[in-house]
Design brief:
mainly alpha; 71% helix; 0% strand; globular
């Protein structure tokens, strides 16, 4: 993520391809600082939601965030 305006599509594709490696590193107790240095895109909002889908096969943004926003709007 050295570009000023990286392509979200390209980042998403590369993150999908490197998911197994990233999971292995995280499971082996990598420090968050090392993870941030190695996978900076993982800490963007778009990739947080995408990573959740990769792990849980559930769309966090639609299922949880949308539900919470609907609750707030109802109150």
């Amino acid at each position: 993520m050295k570009k000023r305006n990286p392509s979200g599509t390209v980042i998403g594709s590369k993150m999908d391809q490197t998911f197994p490696l990233r999971r292995q590193e995280i499971v082996e107790a990598e420090l968050v600082v090392k993870t941030l240095e190695r996978w900076p895109a993982l800490f963007t909002e778009r990739q947080v939601f995408a990573e959740f889908i990769r792990i849980a096969t559930t769309n966090l943004e639609n299922d949880f965030v949308g539900e919470k926003l609907a609750d707030c709007a109802a109150n």
